[in-house]
Amino acid sequence: MTARRLFLLDAARLAAAATAATPARVLAAAPANRAGYPFSLGVASGSPLPDSVILWTRILPDPLDPASAPRLAVPLRWEVAADEGFRTIVARGGAVATPELAHSVRVNVVGLQPARWYWYRFMLGDAVSPAGRTRTAPAAGSMPDVLKLAVASCQHWEFGAYAAHRHIAAASPDLVAFLGDYIYEWGPYQLRHPQRAVRQDESFTLDDYRRRYAQYKSDPQLQAAHLAAPWIVTWDDHEVANDYAGLRDERLAATFAQRRAAAYQAFYEHMPLRLPPPRSFASVRMFQRYDWGRLARLHVLDDRQYRAAQACPRPNAGGSASVTPRACPALLDARRSMLGREQEAWLEAGLRSSPARWNVLAQQTLMAPSTQVPAATPDGGRFWTDGWDGYPAARRRLLDTLVETRAANPLVLGGDVHTFYAAELRRDFGRPVSRANPLVATEFVGTSVTSSSRPQQRTDDYVAMNPHIRYGRSDRRGWMLLEVRPQEVRTWFLGLDDVRREDSGQRVLAGFSVRDGRAGVERTAG
Ligand code: FE
Ligand code: CA
To answer: For 336-360, how does the pLDDT look when each residue is reduced to its tens digit (9 = 90+)?
Structure first.
């Protein structure tokens, strides 16, 4: 049986098992932009605990017109039901959407039952939002049969349609992890075949970023993926500015701290984050953990806010470059951190205390080394400084921590590079795998929802030069689906047939299995 057939059967079985709205019904629930309808940006849920989820919405009748928002604060009502028809309401309440947070609201619903699907909606006057479906995490100490996890990143508006999100909704995942580049801050992009235009120039101010999120969130397929399951989210660079590091951007702008705070506020306003409104958006603690019973612990990382500046940038600039260790000794400086010391310590504690069978690091970018020239040259390879290759000492510390904490089955998930990768991680990539240098983690990196990438031939060259990378595919956009079970994690790389089409089909490009107690990639499909 072909991999595709297997997958379809599997999807059909899971869809039948789910008590979910069918994808068609989910899509139908996404509103057309009816005049005056306040919920044109949809609803969302996320950050699930065993007894609690966060609900989100933002009041904006016309996604492309900020002036369509109410001028004052408006009171909303919300309700959570045990059934799709809202016959059994289990929680209800009020919330106030204020102009200070762009009429966005986050409701922390508590007192829910673990491991259960719920339906929720907001009401404003006579208007009723689309009904979203959400789910609580399993009880602490329980061992669920499966966590069905969809993983996505990088959805540059102008590079295509969000068909990947329709497929995510159709797959009925328990949870969606979005790993960064939810928006791109850039102005209109010079494309030969622009699919969709952004409505404004590059984002710098709070109003700019808010407009950008509103345009992105107007997309019905993106709304459908939010309606289908709770999300956990982190950010990467483009939620703020390309290649930024801490408080430094590529332009070395003196006002970057203000820009970053504006961007952080807009992100906060548009995501179902489990975070009370910060007093200031100068810094926002984004790293967080979520337990799925004893099956999985998701360590959600922030590798942007606290990182050391990229080593050896171009003259009079910040941001990334491609460098050799010989020409750029600063690359190897052990003081340079990707996560910052506080987050490193927090991650270590979370790994050490983890009760989970699988420790999932949900983070932004490729962790495996990826030299762009043969490593066996006097220069020692050539590396892109914006990813983990720009922070090799920090990467080594992290891999050491995975070993020393004895966290079970570390699984690294990433995005950012607009390429599907499956890789095997060990502490010392300069030495072969051995008893003293075993595989310590398995890594899967999703491609982009839309954002473009390099030609496949170059990716093939990278895979050939980096044997710990077992698979690389950059010519397809799409997403990843994982089924995490006690004995095995199965991963599928799902590629769109044509990112330019809203109705694009998808196919399994490759499938992999990781067994409990055995890091490493086993190809099962594609
Ligand atoms: Fe990206
Ligand atoms: Ca990125």
So the answer is: 999 999 999 999 999 999 999 999 9
Q: What is the number of alpha carbons within 13 Å of residue 504 lying toward its C-beta?
A: 25
Do residues 162 and 42 lie in contact, with contact meaning Cβ atoms separated by under 8 Å?
no
User: Pairing between strand 469-473 and 89-97?
Assistant: unpaired
d(CA 173, ligand 1 centre) in Å = 23
Distance of CA 449 from the midpoint of ligand 1 (Å): 9
In the reported structure, the alpha carbon of residue 452 is separated from the centroid of ligand 1 by a whole-number distance in angstroms of: 8
Is residue 372 within 8 Å of residue 469, measured between CB atoms? no
Ligand nearest to the CA of 451: 1
- Provide the token pair at 488: 């095995």
Residue 279: other Cβ atoms inside 10 A = 6
Q: What is the pLDDT of residues 425-478, one digit of tens each?
A: 999 999 999 999 999 999 999 999 999 999 999 999 999 999 999 999 999 999
What beta strand segments (E) does 355-409 contain? 358-362, 383-384
- Predicted TM-score of the model (pTM): 0.93
As a whole number of angstroms, the distance between CA 241 and CA 358 comes to 33
> Which pLDDT score, from 0 to 100, does residue 526 have?
85
Distance CA 498, CA 500 (A): 5
240 contact partners, CB below 8 Å, separation of at least 6: 185, 249, 259, 260, 263, 264, 304
Dihedral over alpha carbons 235, 23, 158, 493 (to 10 degrees): 60
Q: What is the pLDDT of residues 161-212, one digit of tens each?
A: 999 999 999 999 999 999 999 999 998 876 545 667 777 789 999 999 999 9
Please name which ligand lies nearest the alpha carbon of 242. Answer: 2
Q: How far is the CA of 391 from the centre of ligand 1 (A)?
A: 19
Q: Which residues have a beta carbon within 5 Å of ligand 1, which is an ion?
A: 154, 181, 451
Q: How many CA atoms lie within 13 A of 398 on its CB side?
A: 29
φ/ψ (deg, to 5) at 342: -65, -45
What confidence tens digit (pLDDT) does each residue in 270-300 have?
999 999 889 999 999 999 999 999 999 999 9
Distance 453 CA to ligand 2 centre (A): 12
Residue whose C-alpha is closest to residue 499's, from 519, 483, 526, 477: 477
φ, ψ dihedrals at 316, nearest 5°: 55, 35
